[in-house]
Write a structure and sequence with these properties.
single chain; mainly alpha; about 75% helix; about 0% strand; elongated
Length: about 60
């Protein structure tokens, strides 16, 4: 009984660690977590401005 309980706890911990590994990097990248209050939330690279312009152009082409 004891070994079965520890096995379940271990499997849940591994699964939760796997999920946290996939959820934390995107949150850090966009600035949702990181401890710096002076930085605005959002992507900080120039690529995002280029992509925003690209999608804005696509939207204008549809009209």
């Amino acid at each position: 009984m004891k070994n079965g309980l520890w096995l379940v706890i271990l499997m849940v911990a591994i699964f939760m660690g796997f999920l946290m590994g996939y959820s934390l990097p995107p949150m850090i990248e966009v600035g949702m977590i990181g401890g710096k209050n002076e930085q605005p939330v959002g992507l900080k690279s120039e690529v995002s401005k280029e992509m925003e312009q690209y999608y804005q152009d696509l939207l204008n082409d549809q009209d």
